[in-house]
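Many introductory courses stop at the sequence. We go one step further.
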Amino acid sequence: MFRARRAVCDTISTMRVTGIAFLLLSMATLLPAAKNLEVYFVDVEGGQATLVVAPSGQSLLVDAGWPGYNGRDADRIAAAAKRAGVKRIDYMLMTHYHTDHVGGVAPVAARIPIVNYVDHGDNTETGKSADQLAAPYLKLREKGTHVVVKPGDKIPIKGLDVTVVAARGEAIASALPGAGGANPLCASFQPKQDDPSENAKSVAVMIGFGKFRMADFGDITWNVEHKLVCPNNLLGGADVYLTTHHAANLSNPPVLVHALRPRVAIMNSGARKGGSPDTIQLIRESPGMEDLWQLHYAIQAGQQGNSPDALIANVDENCQGNWIRLSVERNGAFTVYNGRNKHTKTYQARN
């Protein structure tokens, strides 16, 4: 009888363990999958509007495109935010005071609440037109929290590492973690005439998520870019490079682009703005470059200069405002998606 009772107890014990294991397995399947970093490159036809959504749900909007056009750019940004499940912009990063970057902030604020306004300080350009351009933005930022950033500062997006690497014409003094090696390309660098405009004052950031890095430098120009990588490369590498200044040849020197060794470049030019043929070629020649994705077909680059149709979100000059989406896993793997034709490509994490 003792053996019979023990056998019953063992059976019950086994059933309990099996039941607990099954319960734990069931609970595991109900847990949400680890969220990715999502980035929407919104077509604002030659400006910039990049919506970054962290796995935490916090959002960063880098610039807001043009004003006018019956609210075209603000509507496109609001549509991207809705698609991403974003109900407010936690941080509005305004890289510099030019119409195609700051002009759309007020229309966006009329559609989506903005909590924090981040910039390099007041407009460095003066005169009536410059004052009129800045006025709507300055009025808006008084209603929220205003943050002035300088090189080395962090924008505190939960779950991301967003580091300001340049602002108001100055660059970081110390290398980012893992960076700082000598850059042999510096020996052949040819400076250009110094740029006194707001372009050179742009706030530039490196965005990190796990092993992944993305570079978004606004419209900083040639000589300021040089400061970031010479004599030592203070930035290290980038998996994705948003072409600086809409891929204009006033920016994107090889000393920077080739030092970053990006695997993918996203070109945010318009049909007739940016997309310089020599810059496109320079980017394609960067070591390790796999693909150049484009928000627009660049008319001046011609058929040979542009990427294959599958990698271009808007192929016609009178476009529908199709976007490109980037989805990033913490291990460094990422996927790029073309909103026009649903073409998708996944890039495995680097070793």
